[in-house]
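Hi V.,

Quick status before I head out on leave. The structure for the redesign project is tokenized and pasted below; the design run finished overnight.
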């Protein structure tokens, strides 16, 4: 697994490439991520690197105060652990800049999708719904029959039902990095990224590289 970089979604915009083509993109605030802990097989049973980002101004719990003090790092809002094979490449207190990614790199972006609230079957799963006329009344957006007959006499669990939509952990794969700017703590990624504006995102180098 590759390093998961912590960022915050600013919003969407558009840029033009060298040929004048318009590209829709997402702006991501990407401050330097600080290494706060290194885990190894001897002490923890696995290898991983823990990153932290975005300064925390509100009161911090004593446990986290001690954790950050041990790493000699100011308290941070977000902590993310990534399993990596070569932890020797990192040191506690090291800062990782957005230039960890290069222009043209393919990345996977993970975030919590926008919550849509309680939704019916047509919006949630794309059900066709019932007839618009021909005797159908007050049932136009219902799902129709979901059971069988007197045997088994019930609906099996696990079927599609009206329920809450969104608010799930979602990963969009193979997005391309368009701009990297360390001075402005900015990453610009082509296409859309999950989640709402000001939501935290986790960026890692793509697992499935397009050839």
């Amino acid at each position: 697994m590759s390093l998961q970089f912590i960022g915050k979604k600013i919003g969407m915009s558009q840029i033009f490439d060298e040929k004048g083509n318009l590209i829709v993109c997402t702006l991501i605030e990407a401050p330097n991520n600080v290494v706060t802990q290194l885990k190894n097989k001897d002490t923890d049973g696995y290898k991983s690197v823990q990153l932290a980002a975005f300064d925390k101004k509100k009161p911090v719990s004593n446990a986290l105060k001690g954790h950050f003090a041990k790493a000699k790092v100011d308290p941070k809002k977000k902590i993310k652990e990534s399993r990596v094979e070569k932890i020797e490449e990192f040191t506690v207190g090291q800062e990782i800049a957005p230039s960890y990614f290069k222009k043209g790199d393919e990345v996977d972006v993970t975030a919590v999708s926008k919550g849509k609230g309680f939704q019916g079957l047509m919006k949630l799963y794309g059900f066709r719904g019932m007839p618009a006329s021909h005797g159908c009344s007050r049932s136009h957006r219902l799902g129709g029959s979901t059971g069988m007959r007197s045997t088994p006499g019930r609906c099996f669990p696990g079927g599609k039902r009206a329920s809450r939509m969104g608010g799930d952990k979602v990963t969009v794969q193979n997005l391309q990095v368009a701009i990297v700017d360390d001075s402005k703590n900015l990453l610009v990624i082509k296409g859309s990224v999950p989640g709402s504006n000001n939501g935290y995102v986790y960026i890692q180098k793509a697992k499935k590289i397009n050839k």
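Above is the designed sequence. The mean pLDDT is 93.

G. will cover questions while I'm gone.

Best,
W.
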